[in-house]
Fold each of these.
Amino acid sequence: MDFLDPKKKRAHNIRLMIGYCLMSVVLLIISIYFTLSAFGFGVDTKTGQIIQNGLVFIDSKPVSATVYINGKEKDQTDSRLLLPTGRQEVRLQRQGYRPWNYAFDLEAQSVERLVYPVLFPEVLSSSNVASFASNPAFVSQSPDRKWLAVTRPGTANVFDFYDLSSKQTTARSIRLPSSVLSSGKGHSYQLVDWAKDNKRLVLRHSFGKKSEYILIHRENEAAAVNLTKHFNGVTLTTLTLRDKDVADFYLHDTKTRVLSSISFATKRQTTVLNNVQQFKSHGKSDILFVTPGAEKNKVSLAYFDGKTTRTIWSLAAAQSHLLDIARFDNEWFMVAGNDKEDKAYIFRDPFGSGSTSGKVVPSIAITQDNPQFLSFSPNARFITLQNGKNISMYDAETQRKYMYKTPIDADSKTKFSWMDGFRLMTIHNKQLVVWDFDGTNAQILVNTPTLPFFSNNYETLFSISSDKKPQLAKTPLVVN
C-alpha cells in the first residue's frame, strides 16, 4: 500500500506541489497576458518583446475587399485587427474597383473604426433613362432618395416624378390645376422643403417680379395648394415647414422680426418668438436663433425648447450669421458663427442632463477665414465650415478637428454638398468630384454640369446632362 510507504508518500506530495506550482505559473502567465491585452499590449512573435497595440475595425462597401496594412495583406473587410501602435497605411482593394487609401497614427489602447470606405468602380458606364427637350428648370430629390421631381421643359405646371428605386426608373406625371399657379412670365421654382412623408413638397414659385408659395403632392395633382392664396391676408416673407410636416408652418417676418406658426387647417397664426433676426428650427418646437444683444455691436445666440428661452452665447453683430442645430448620439449640437469672428462655436448639449447650472461655454470652436457656409452631415456626425476650397471640420464622434484645402479651386460662392454621411461632393469643370470627410480619396466619377442624385442604397447614380438634347442618365456603382 503506497500511501503507507513514507518515501512514496513524500514523492507523491512533491509531484503534487510541482503540479500546483506549474498550474499557478500557467494561470499567472494567462492572467498577465489577458491583463496586458486589455491594456493594449501584445507580444512580438519575432522578437519576443512586449509591444503596445490598438484595435482597428475595417469595413467597406462593397464588402469583401482585401485589406493591406503597410503593404502587407492582412484580411478581408468586415474585420477586426489588433495592430501595433504607430503609423498605419491602409489600402483596400477589390477587383473591378478603385482602391481606397488611408494613413493614420494608431495610439496605444485606442480603437479606430474605418467602417465608412466606399470603393467606386474603375469604369463607370451610363445608360439613358429619359430625354428632355431642354434643360429642366427644377430638379429635386426626396429625403428618402427614392423620388426625383422634375419640371417638364416647356411647361410651368407639369411635374414628372421618377421612381429611382425601380429598375425601369419609371415616371409618374402630375399637372397642376390652373387655379394653383398665378399667371405671369418667366416661371421658375425654388425648393423650400420636402415633407417627411416624401410625398409632398413646398416650392417658391417666381413669375416676373412676384413670387408665391405652392404645395404639391406627387401622387395627387388635385391636392396641390397655392399657400399664398390659402393664407390670404398673411404676410409670407419667409415660410418653412414645421417639423417637416404640412400641418404647420413657420413664418418669419424679417421686418418686424416676429417668428410665428400658422396652422394649415385652421389658418390660425400664433406668435412663437419676437426679435428674431435669424433662426434654425429642429423638430416640433426646438429653435436656435439670433436676437439683438444688450451690448453695442453684439447679438445674442439663444435656444427655445417650446416653453423656455435660454441665452447661450454672445456673438459679434454681422449682416448674416451661420446657424445650425442637430442631434447626434442623443445629444444636442448647436452651432453658430459669422465672418466677423472667423469661426463657429459648437455647443454640445448645453442644457442637457450633464450640464451645470453655470454659464454656458462652447465645447469647441472651428476656425475659418471669412466662413461662408455651415452644414451638418446627413448623419449629423460632422460639422463643416467652408470658404471656397478651405474646409474646417469637426467629428462629433471622435472629437477630432480637420483643416484642409480641397484639390478643387472653388470660389467663395461655391458650396460643397454631402454625398452621404461621410463624403462631400461638388461639380468642377462639369465633372463630379467626391472625397472623404477628411479630404482624402478625392476622385472624379462622371461628367455632369449639375449635382447628381443617388438611389437609397447608393448603388446607382443619376445625373442630368446639358447637351443639345439633355438626358437623365443612370450609372451603376456596383460591378457585377
Amino acid sequence: MEAGFDAQLDSFTFHLRVERNLSVNTLEAYSRDLLKLVGFCRSAGRRDFSTLTPLDLVAFLKRLNQEGLSIRSQARLMSSIRTCYRFLVSEGSCERDPSAEIERPRMMRKLPEFLSMVEVDALLSQPQGDGARALRDRAMLEVLYATGLRVSELTQLRIDMLDRKLGVIRVMGKRRKERMVPLGDTALDALDDYLSHGRSSLSPGNASPFLFVIKGGARMTRQGFWKMIKRYALQAGIGKSISPHQLRHSFATHLLERGADLRSVQALLGHVDITTTEIYTHVNAERLRRVYDQFHPRAR
C-alpha cells in the first residue's frame, strides 16, 4: 500500500530527530531539500517516493540547473535524497533506490578562506574599553579563535560548560556530540574580565544560563555575532568579506602551520570524518607552492 509523500516524509523526519538525534537546523535542511523534490514530482503526477524513477530525478536536477542552483547545492540536495531513500528502502516503504543510479553532481572543492596572523591580531584588538559590551565582544572573539568553535556552538555555550580550573570548555557539537576544548591564557583572561566586570550588567541577577548575553540577559544570537564581527573587521581595515567561520578556518590553518597533527585538529574541530579536516592540508600545500614560486631561483 502506498504511503504517500507526506507520510513517508514524516516517518523519515521522525527517524532523523529521534533515532539519529540530529539538530533542528539539520532537520530543516533535509525538509527543505525533500520538499523541493516532492513539489516537482507532484506536478508530474507522482504519488509517493516508491513511484519515482531515475528519469524523474534527472529531470529534477535539470530543473534545478535551469533555475541557477549551484552545483554545491545540487550535490547537497542529492545527498539528502539518497539518505531518505536508504531509510525508506530499509523500512520497506520503497523496493529500490532510484537515486543510486544518478551520478552525484561534480564540484570543485572550495578551499576555506582564512585570516593571516596580522589580520587576526587586528580583528581581536578592536573591542576597546571596559564597558560590558566591549568586554563581552573581546571575550567572544578570543574564545572563537582560541577554540575553533562553530558560531552556533559559541552562542549556545552555558556558564556551566566552562571549567576555569582546568582551562577547558565543554562543547555540544553536531548530532549532540560533546567534546572538551582547551582555552589559552589570553582567552581565559578575556573571559575572566567579562564574567567579573561585564556580564552582570547585561544580565540582571545573572539569571541567564548562557555565557554570552545581550542587554537584558537574552542569549547572543548567531545573527547578532555575525553583525558584530563584520563591524569589527571593517574597523580593523580588513579588506575582505569576513564571517565567524573564517576564524574557525584560521584556527585550524594556524595550528597545522605550526606543526599540529591532523587527528588533534580533527578532535578540536569536532569533525566526525577526518577527510573534512584534510581540506586544511590543501590550504597549506597551496601556500607552500606560492612561497616556493616566489622565492626559489629556478621556480619559473
Amino acid sequence: MTSSTDLVAVVMAGGSGTRFWPLSRAARPKQLLPFAGGRSLLAATVERLAPLVGSDRTLIVTNATVAEAVRADLPDLPGDAILAEPVGRDTAPCIGWVAWRLAQTHPDAVMVVLPADHVIPDGAALCRALTDAAAIARSTGGLVTLGLAPTRPETGYGYLELGDEAIVATAHTARRVRRFVEKPDQAHAVAYLAAGNYRWNSGMFAWTVAAIVAAIRRHLPELAAGLDELALLTSHVGEAAALAEVYPRLHRTSIDFGVMEHAAEVWAVPVGFAWSDVGSWLGLEEVLGDAGSDVRIGDVLALDSCRSILVSDGPLLAAVGVEDLVVVATADAVLVLPKSQSQRVREIVERLRAEGRTGLL
C-alpha cells in the first residue's frame, strides 16, 4: 500500500487563464484569482492535498513571470518548492522536468499530478482517490488517471473510454483505459453519456517516477533528449542557467497527446465527486451561483438583475435589470457579453495582442 511518504504532489500552475480577462492578466492568471471562498484556486488546491502529502513533498510548477506572486500566495511552502519555467511548453515538458529532477532526488516516489485551477469541494474524496491511484501506479507500473463521472453531454472536455479489465483498490475499482477521445461533437457526447463506460478526462494523474520517465523516453524521444541535456547542463552550470538555455527548445506538447494516448498500461480510477475546471466566466456560475441568482464578486450594486455574473476589481459596478450577462470591471477595462458567449473572451485577448495593446494583457 502506498503511504504518504512515497508521494510527491506536483501542482501545475503555469496557465494564463485568458478566458477570465480582464480580471486574469499575465501578472495574475486564473489560478491566483480568489474564486475559492476568497482564496486563490491554487491555494485551495494545495490545501486539499495537505492531508495526503506534506508541504515538504509538494511542488508547484509555474511560469517565471508569476513565480514571486505564487510564493506570496503560498507562504507555508518552502521557497524551493516553487519551480519556475522560463517559458510555457505545455504539460509534457512541465511533468518531464519534474520527473527528471525527482529521478535524482526521490527515484522511488509516486507522483500525483494535478492542475492548480480545479474546484473540488470534497477534498477528502479527492485524497482517497489519489491514494488508490498511487497504489495502483505502484503495483502495476502503469500510468493512472482519475476519470470523472460525466453529468451532461459536455463537448468541451476530452473523454476516457473504459474497458472491462479491473483492479480493486481500497475504495475504488480502477478500469483499464481503452482509448482517449478528443472533445466530441454533441451527438457523440450524448452517446458517451448514455453508454455508461465513458468518463471525463480530469487531467489528474498518478505514476511512479520511473514509469513516467520511461513513457516519455518511449513516446517523446525528442523531449527526453532535451530533458537529458537539461539535467547534464544543470550539473555543470546550475539549474537556472540550464533552464534558460534548454527549456525554450523543449518539444511543446501535452502529456495526454504526447504520452497517455499512446501508452499501453493506462488505468483510470472512476470518481464521482463534484468537480469543475472553472473554464470560463460561465463556469464560475457552477461553483459560486445558485439557481436563478447572480454571481457577485467585489463592489457590486445590482437592482432587479438575475442569472448574471457581476465582478468588480475595484470600481463600483452598478447594474439594473440585467439578465444572463457577464459584466467584469477593472481599473482599466470593462467586459460585457452574454453568458452564452463566454468562450469568446479569448477573441478579445487575441485582438488586443494583435493590436499591440500588451499593457491590457
Amino acid sequence: MILRELHLVKELKKVDPGCKLKNDIFFSEHHVSHAASAFFPSPFQESVILTLDGVGEWTTLSVATGKGNKLNIIKEIDFPNSLGLFYSSSPQYLGFKVTSGEHKVMGLAPYGKPIYEKLIFDNLIDLNQDGSFLINQNYFDYSTGLSMINNKFIQLFKNDIRDPGDELTQFHMDIAASIQKVTEDVMLALASSLRKEFDIPNLCLAGGVALNCVANGKILILDLSLPLL
C-alpha cells in the first residue's frame, strides 16, 4: 500500500477504529472526479460532460460521455494549453490575486468593451472550429516560472501590471471584457461542436472554468437545444 493510502487509513481510524479500507480506497483522476461530480447528481440518464480547469494531473480539458452509471473519457487537451490558466493570467495583470481573483475579472468585464479580442486571438490563443485551442506560451510563464505572464504579454497590451492599490481604469475594464469574451467564444465553440459530434441533447459542465456563470448563461441560451447543468 502506498504512502497516501497509509495516511488516509491512519486518519480514518481516528474516526472509526475498525476501519479496514486499505483495499477499498480508490484514487480517481482529477478530471474523472470533476466529470462524475457533474453527471451523477444530474437528472440526465445520458449526457456529454465538458470539464475545463487550470490543470489536473496533466489534463486541462476533457470531454466525457455519461450513460446510466457509466462514465467514459473520450478526449483531452493537456497542459500547457489551458483555458483556465489563460483566464487566470488576467487577475495578475489586473492587480488581483491569481486563483482567487478570477471572479473579480468576470465582475469587471461588463464595465468594459472587448476591444482586445482580436489582439488576443491574433497573439495569445489559436482557436479551432471545433473549440480546441493552443495557447501561445511565448506570452506566459506559468509552465516554466513563478509568474502567470511575462514581459511580452505586458508589451502586447502596452500597459504595466496594475498595482493592487491603483485605480481601476477603463483600460482594465476593457482587458477584463476582452478576456471574458474570448473565454466565452471558446466555450461556445466547444458546446456547439460537441452537440454536433455526439448528438446528445444534454451537457454537464465541470471544473473551475465552469464557475464562469456568464459563459454558462450564454451556452444555455445558445440555440442548440442544450439542457445545461
